[in-house]
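Report of the visiting student (M.T.), summer placement. My assignment was to run the structure pipeline on a short list of targets and document each run. The first record concerns CCHC-type domain-containing protein.
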Amino acid sequence: LAQIQQLMNSVAALQNTIHQQNAVIQQLQNQAAPAVPGSTPRGPKMATPPIYDGAMTTCEGFINSCRLYMSAKPQEFPTLQVKITWVLGFMQNGMAQMFRDYFLTYMNTPDYQTQYVQSTESDPIELLYRDIYKAFGDPNKQATAIQEMTTIKQGSKSGEEHVQLFKQCYMRSGYGEVAGIHEFKRSLNTPLLDKCMAVPDLPTTLDKWYELVIRLDRQWRQAVAERKIFAARGGSGTGTQTTPVNRPQQTPWRPPSQPAPRDPNAMQVDRNRGPIRCYNCGQTGHMARAC
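After the run finished, the structure tokens were exported:
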């Protein structure tokens, strides 16, 4: 009984210690970290915009990168001049560099004070974004998207890659779903389209067509990969067998054989046969296993 009482006292003492430690931890967590005088929050870590060279295809992406960085770190851009010079600092190549040099000169004119400094815009940096887009952006994004969608081809891309590229063009084209399905079917490689058309119940929506193409393309690529694995295993299995010693063999002499005369009336079957076509990339001249 004395030992049991001693153990119970020890357990009670340990529980009291744990309770005290939890109270200390809770007190430390409730204490706020002391703020350093004069310090400002740095904000999340963000990637800076890429160097812009004036290309039309990357103009909108460059502007959006600048917007995203400024919205995440507003404390780094206290004035309009800081914002403008920061954006112009990434315009270093090609026509963008010429725009930067011209705008730096324009900032010393009264027109700049009227248009930018005295602007009623909520954030005058948007005026600079508009000027950049007028100079380098796509004047008709919808027409460009339609041209891309009507000329895109799958080629050597996988089903997933092709679907993602087609989605981007389709969303900007303004096409309806029926026209989108037609263009999507046109853009597929011929062997893959043939497999899709062999499905009993064809999809009626563009999203279902995306799923069907990705599923069939994955099945084919998985079959090709497994075929290579099985062939490698088969080759390694035969390699363990002992090969007999090569010995010279005497072949009996045979008289040269004369080629059989060709029937002039025979059909030229091989000449009428079309070229072989690769299922992977849709090109002629080779098969899928050699692609």
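The domain at 141-229 is CATH 1.10.1200 (Non-ribosomal Peptide Synthetase Peptidyl Carrier Protein; Chain A). The radius of gyration is 36 Å. I thank the supervising group for their guidance throughout the placement.
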